[in-house]
Amino acid sequence: MTTTTASPTRRDVLPWSALLALGTAVFITSLTETLPAGVLPPMSSSLGVSSGAAGQAVTVYAAGTALTAIPLAAATTGMRRKPLLLAAMTVFLVANTLTAAAPGYAVMLVARFLAGVAAGLAWAILAGNARRIAPAGQEGRAIAIAMTGIPLALSLGVPAGTLIGQQIGWRASFAAVSVVSLAVVGWITFSVPAISQPTASAAEPKPTTRQTLRVPGVTTIMTVVVTFVLGHTIIYAYIAPYLRQAGLATQVDAILLAFGIACLVSIWYTGSHIDRHLRRLALTAATLFTVATATFAATTAQAGIWVAALAWGLGWGGTPTLLQTAAGHAGMRRSPAIADTAQAILVTLWNAAMALGGIIGGILLQRVDIAADAIAAAALGAVSLTVITLTRKHAFATADQDAP
């Protein structure tokens, strides 16, 4: 078995600088995935394409991650983690810079796909890095610190990028991400300790996807992953055109900020109660999302939209944690290896649903109208709610609850 280079910090103290560097990497890769949603009108105008076509910038990024994350992670199993992470973030930096400077639509799509590939590989490394550089007994806290980049991207990053895009231009938003990416590459270089990956012979044999999906509860959870994320992406990727039609074009950044703050509240509340009330929280999240998107479909009244955006954030914010926890709990009833494979399947399906959501949302926007996006999102939310409601045994149960 290969060795792990010791962290330069005390063994009982979290390596804060390293974890914050990893958290910032999570932040910018999460931010960049959905940033086009906030700058869609100026982006489509600059590139000479429709809003639906410009929305494919979200689709191809998610597709790059979904199609390559698992194969690249498998292909790089024996490689040292820090150089691999730095390589992934460097490719991400180059691809994002190319997006900002893209002379046309085709180049932009290629750059976005490449950025998604790099981000997918980085995501396959980040959580493991955080866990392995943490002192014994504090691995979970270390991962939580690194993953704070996700809610921060929603609550602060996208609204800030939207504001920059409105005031200076959409290219400036992506250029700002590149500047932060360059700083993160340097930060990781100097603060994250070098660690090695265990050899393949020392690793537990990895279960197949089919074996994992046969574990009670796993397929049900993955069904909710697909329907919930698909519904969310269909409306989120095209929220700017929706708000513009509702007469709120100048308030896109403010509404996204309110949505993000609601997400933060949801994440905090979910983290505080998930161990005892996983199923109840999942039901509440799906209900809030369904009601919020149904409100978007039913009215363009500005007060109703503001309330719906807050409800949407409260329903969506804790959903990634809920789904990851549910998948982990279901898999752990069989083995840690099954739990790991379930998480890999979740990541792949999550990004595939995001890619498909961008496509479906764009088609509905172009061939019907923006209200059709909200109707589709509400329908998928209702499917998620129904599946969770009918699931009473193996899925969405607490870690210590044995299925009957």
Features:
404 residues; 17 helices; single chain; disordered N terminus; mainly alpha
Terminal CA distance reads 40 Å
Low-confidence stretches: 1-10, 198-203
How large is the count of helical segments? 17
User: Helicity, in percent?
Assistant: over 70%
Q: pLDDT average, as an integer?
A: 81
H/E element sequence:
HHHHHHHHHHHHHHHHH
Gyration radius over CA: 20 Å
Query: Helices and strands: which structural class?
Result: mainly alpha
Biggest sheet record: none
Q: State which percent range the strand residues make up.
A: under 5%
Give the overall silhouette: globular
Number of DSSP strand runs = 0
Descriptive account of the structure:
With 404 residues, the chain is mostly helical. The chain is built from 17 helices and no strands. It has helices at residues 16-34, 40-47, 51-54, 56-75, 81-101, 105-132, 139-146, 149-167, 170-191, 209-213, 218-236, 239-245, 252-298, 302-316, 319-332, 336-367, 370-390. Helix 11 (218-236) runs antiparallel to helix 15 (319-332), helix 11 runs antiparallel to helix 17 (370-390) and helix 13 packs across helix 15 (319-332). The chain is globular and about 55 Å long. The two termini are 40 Å apart. Mean pLDDT is 81; it is low at 1-10 and 198-203.
